[in-house]
Amino acid sequence: MTRDQDLFMDDKTQTLQTKLRQLIFVTSGIALLLTSVVYFIFEFNTFRQTEKQHLTTLAKVIASNSSAPLAFDDRQNATEILNALLAEGHIREACIYDLQGRIFAKFPVNISDSLFPRMFKDERVFYSGSTLECFEPVTQPDGMLGVLYLQSDLSIIYSRFMFFTLIAFLVVAISIVISIIFSKRLQLAITRPILQLSESARLVSSRGDYSVRAQPSRIQEANVLTGAFNQMLDRIDSQNQDIMRFNQELEHKINERTKELAGSNLKLQQQNELVGSILDSSVDLIAVVDSDLKYVIINKAAVKAYGKTSEELIGHSLTEVFPNLESSEMIGNLQMVLQGRMVHVEKYFSPILNGYLDSFYIPLFDKAGEVGRILIIAHDITEIISSNEHLVELNAELKKSNEHLEQFAYVASHDLQEPLRKIQTFSEVVETEIDDKEFVQKYMGKIRVAAARMSDLVKSILHYSRLSNSQEDFVPIDLNKVLETSKTDLEILIESKEAIFETGPLPKINGLAPQMSQLFLNLLSNSLKFCDVKPIISVQAALLNRDDAASRRFNFAEGCIKLCFQDNGIGFEQHYADKIFNIFLRLHDPKKYPGTGIGLALCKKIVEMHKGFIEVSSSPGQGTTVFIYLPGSLLIS
Amino acid sequence: MVTSSPMVVLIDNDEDDQEIFIMALKKLNKPMMLKSFYNGQDALDYLRTSETIPLWIFVDMNMPLMSGKECLIEIRKISSLAESDVYIYSTAASPGMPDEVFNLGAKDFLLKPVEFKKLVNLLSVIFFPVSDP
Fold first, then answer.
1. Percentage of the residues of chain A whose pLDDT score is greater than 70
2. By the number of CB atoms within 10 A of the CB, which of A165, A376, A494, B55 ranks highest?
């Protein structure tokens, strides 16, 4: 059941016909009943009044007739008079009292005197229960003789009334039935238009069809109702059509607007995608934060650099995501940007990335002119910084190497020019004294010596430069063999000076073979050269672990190999120890101790090529000890 | 010993260069007195005690043990030699070396001339700047 039907067919509601029928039934029933009751009451009272009258009349007649018997004390006559009452069937009892109240005569004769009431002297009529009683004095013109008493039985009359009542009810019932039959036909005329209206309403309601119309009828009020109903339907119908038309228009408009929106949405989406792809394709870190420093936008590069997902960043504040930013330089800068200033930090060390950024913090102003958001653009310059640092290192190295080169150029030009100048000067002098044979011979000798020295120098320089530029690989070298070879090379000098060697076992190492031989040769030849007595030369090796003082001093992580070349030569002041490795430096008189001044410089170079260090300890007349420290990693066990 | 001839001091470890210097001095044909040393230490020992004040001191730059520069510093410490002109005398010059020695009190930085005649001229200009224009 739908709610609409419910509205019309409630359990508590009744059809119009039922209601009308009930109405007619009740109305006609009440009318008939009231009529019957009024009639009955009237009839009843009239009857009682009549009965009273009738009994009084009867009592007066009998009393009049009884005066003689009473006066003459003729009981028999009195009883006969009373027996005449038999004709009046409704008189149940009767008696005549004498003046003393004694029963003089009675009717019927056989009933007991005690059944009669006490005598009343005056005239009265009254109802007692279902009986009507009457006292009537019996008089003579000279006075009262006695009292007549009559008792009338009303029950027969009452039963007749009951019968009347029954008949009345029957009449009422029949009347009602007839009225209902009549009303049924009559009411149809009234209910039909209303029922039709109701049916129309039901149709409208159940089908929603507002084109349905109620039929007019002959009843004026029903017609007004139908007319109003139809008018209402007309209005609803037209309003409905209006609404439908309006709906269609609205739908059309919505469709158009939706299309437009979809179009602009597509454009917006494309625009957004373009902006997003531009942001994401940037190699720079780009982020936008709001005034609470919460991430609003973050591009791929930044997400990747931070090692987070964008969900972990968007909507969260910087310090929430990266607690170590609290009280950092960056937060301070962002606070400044919130005041409306752009901040550019050329070199910012980011604790998040553990690298350097070139950062721009740009305020983005909202319509109110407040800094609503901050655009952060950061370029990772860690590599540039590190390559810069590397460049600085390289620069320092280059500077050092340049200084070396400058020194080398100076010293080379100095030492090369010296013999050249001598040759030129002496040959000029010789020219002027060409006839002085002794003079010429002397200076020609000097010229030869200078030329020979020149030749030596050129060879040594060539050697030094070749050694510096060498690109050879490290090979296994047995230092014992290197020592033996060097001794063989210096055999003549060793024999002429009668030198004694004290050598311990030497290790095998990875190194540059020709350079290592040169190193040994130079050191041994120095020991032989700078010695005025029989040379005693000691060559020893020791392996030092990483905890040894020397290893620690030179930062050898894997320990080191220590080589000692000790002699008993002329030695030198210890404060020259650093200088003697400079190229072309000679401490001693070149006439007595000839040399190019390149030997020890070369030794230093060779040791450095093996990532080692060279030191010297000496004092004049006490001999010299050269210490060489090579990285333990070169050792071949 | 007092002498009327002006004194020149030469400090050079190179025997040949000393000889060349003496020859050039002779060519000038003027009364000069020369005192030469092979190293700075010997020269300083002499100069600290000498009664004769040299007018000119020539110091070779490249010498073993004590370099010309160190020698110049020591000479400038000797108050009696305040009036002496000290010349640094070298085969070659490295950049900045002349300025360095000026600052240390040298009168000039001289390159040893390659030609003998030029050396004679150089010495003549130093010793007799006015008389030989």
1. 95
2. A376
